[in-house]
Amino acid sequence: MRLLLVLLTLFALPLRAEEVVLGLSQDSVSISTNFDGSEILIYGAIKREAPIPDGDPLQVIIAVAGPSQALTVRRKERKFGIWVNTDAVEVDAAPSFYAIATSAPWDEVISDTEDLRHRVSIPRAIRSVGSEISNSQSFTDAVIRIRTKSEQYQLRESTVRLRQDTLFDTAIAMPANLTEGEYPTRIFLTRGGQVVSTFETEIDVRKVGLERWLYALSRQQPLLYGLMSLAIAIAAGWAASAAFRVLRSG
Amino acid sequence: MQVYLPIAEVSVNAFLLLGLGGLVGILSGMFGVGGGFLMTPLLFFIGIPPAVAVATEANQIVASSFSGVLAHLRRKTVDLRMGTVLLIGGLIGAALGVMVFNYLKSLGQVDLLVKLCYVVFLGIIGGLMFIESLNALRKSKSGAAPKRKKHTWIHKLPLKMRFRTSGLYISVIPPLLVGVAVGVLAAIMGVGGGFIMVPAMIYLLGMPTKVVIGTSLFQIIFVTAFTTLLHATTNYTVDVMLAVLLLVGGVIGAQIGAVLGAKLKAEQLRILLAIMVLAVCGKLALDLLLQPSELFSIGSGGH
User: Fold this and answer.
1) Which of A66, A73, A206, B62 lies 20 to 30 A from A136 at CA?
2) Looking at per-residue confidence, does A82 or B120 come out higher?
């Protein structure tokens, strides 16, 4: 059954009227010592075999997601006069970064059923199985609220420029606190809220140079890393003491 | 200039870190304290995750104490025997502390524990110092003589040992316990514990003031080095980049502070330090007492 579906989609592909040809200003982000966030320019064109269809205007949605992680969300409550973490809810998978750019206000670009199917909007990108704690929805909302505030989640409506129904471009700002990994980037073309074409690629986010070396060492050889940290500290302490002794006597 | 910290995974201004290191260095040079108890909360305030702040600060204290203890060794003001007894207690305490730390981390209560420890200890120490130095100021004006040492229950315990450099003949139990307490604090709070150990050595053990600082520094080096290793191998939270930046500022600041400190009177210095300790304590206490603007927090990992 599944094989049949795959075959059907394969056959369906060449028949699709509108397709995306994509370009990225950079297909990898390097986190180096002076990394302070990054802006990626995503641009592309829509390839057609037939003239532009009439009816609902073409809309573009671009969604960039970071690697998903399991999270524990905790809520504070007042106990004995101080604010203490009490209830906790586990979120099975939430992207560490999620940015959506659209070419028009959200309601106009995609219908709710299509959003549900493709998991495009921010709440749908978070996967959370219900928990025993009542109103666990407020915990998922909190994840969105906190991460939107720190610009890890962004919904930027009407920021994709679409020219002559053919060329589109947008810029996605990525904050400094990025997680390493593959960032799946999806482009949806919609008409009247229905997805007519999708395109998927990946942006590679990696620590490089000294950052990469230190991070890898701290995870793979923690003892060696700890000893190295201590050696640096002791050397610096000794050097400082020696240097100032020379300064004072001289 | 922004610097990306590989372990903390945040980007911070390098000059801010150098400045913080310098500022705390000046204070530690002026007052003869390690400064860890001020630096760790400051790191919380600038957004370093508490677990990373605690572990990295332990590493930085190794550097500043090593630099300090060399000067004391040259002056022969380190009681190595007492230091070793304190150290044995300290290592046991540090291991206990890291275990408690990791257990509470899994419960999601580690931030609370660290902050509560800070509020309680900073409050007690700051308050005591404030009263003590006020009294000292009054006494120095009226010209009264300082009190003599007296014998207490401490001197009745078994397992006595002679500590030549300190001129003491006391049981090893109180110094061991002091060591354990300081080790636990070092692991949980990311401090050397000098601000607890120094008063304990003077008032509880009755050690002469001139050997107290050198001996406590000697013990602190090993306990914080041990804590650094434990945090590095169990939590992966030591950020060497952060430590180096703090260290450079701290080392320079400490020397400036030592010069400044020589120009002020001891009692005035202690009142200043007490006020500062109380201020940090007050800020942390307010965070716990007032309703936070965001009730939810995100921790990594499920179970």
Assistant:
1) A66
2) B120
Query: CB neighbours of A226 closer than 8 A, spacing ≥ 6?
Result: B228, B229, B231, B232, B233, B238
Q: Which chain A residue is nearest to residue B106, measuring alpha carbons?
A: A72
CB within 8 Å of B271: residues ≥ 6 apart: B130, B133, B134, B137
B positions 179-238 inside 8 Å of A (CB): 225, 228-229, 231-233, 236, 238
pLDDT digit string, tens, across residues A4-32: 544 444 444 444 577 787 777 777 787 87
Q: Does B268 touch chain A (CB under 8 A)?
A: no
* Single pTM value for the model: 0.73
ipTM entry: 0.76
- φ/ψ (deg, to 5) at B302: -100, -155
- Contacts across the A-B interface (CB distance below 8 Å): 184
| d(C-alpha B229, C-alpha A222), whole Å | 8
pLDDT band at B92 (very low <50, low <70, confident <90, very high): very high
Give the model's pLDDT for residue B148.
47
How do the domains of chain B map onto residue ranges?
A: 2-141+153-289
Task: Give the closest-approach CA distance of A119 to chain B in angstroms.
Answer: 22
pLDDT of residue B302: 47
| Mean pLDDT value of segment B72-85 | 84
Residue count of chain A, please give it: 250
| Ramachandran bin of B85, using left for φ above 0, alpha for ψ from -120 to 50, beta for the remaining angles | alpha
- The H-or-E segment that residue B72 falls in is helix B50-74
A79, amino acid identity: K
If we measure between CA atoms, which residue out of B212, B21, B58 comes closest to residue A240? B21
